[in-house]
Amino acid sequence: MQIGRVIDFYLNLSPVSPTITVPREALYGTDRLYKIIDNRLHVVAVNVVGEQRSEDESGRLILRSDALNEGDRVLVTKFANAMEGLRVTDRRDGE
């Protein structure tokens, strides 16, 4: 190995609680996502604490936020006009 050579280094660590993983498309800016409550968007501040990679090289972000709970729905698609209070339809609702 050469001194000063850059290498990729990946670690497999135990899960940290309470965190969630989301696709990169769910993150807006560097520190927020949108939670869906009653079909309306609500801004949630998050901290990115890591990245999770799978065998197919698709990456997910590991986030931490006191405002997120198990079962919460979040906006995953990049939506240029996303803003607090905007009405949305969840595809899983069949509306």
Radius of gyration: 16 Å
Broad shape: elongated
Low-pLDDT segments, ≥5 res:
none
Strand order of the biggest β-sheet: 1-5-4
Order of helices and strands, N to C? EEEEEE
SS class = mainly beta
Strand content: 25-35%
Commentary on this structure:
This protein is mainly β and 95 residues long. The protein has strands spanning 20-23, 32-37, 40-45, 47-53, 59-64, 73-74. The strands form two sheets. The protein has a three-stranded antiparallel beta sheet with strand order 1-5-4, with no helix packed on it. Strands 3-2-6 form a three-stranded antiparallel beta sheet, with no helix packed on it. The chain is elongated and about 55 Å long.
Which descriptors would you attach to this protein?
95 residues; three-stranded antiparallel β-sheet; single chain; mainly beta
Describe the structure concisely.
It is built from no helices and six strands. It is mostly beta strands.
Question: What secondary-structure arrangement, pairings included, does this model have?
Answer:
Elements: E1 20-23, E2 32-37, E3 40-45, E4 47-53, E5 59-64, E6 73-74
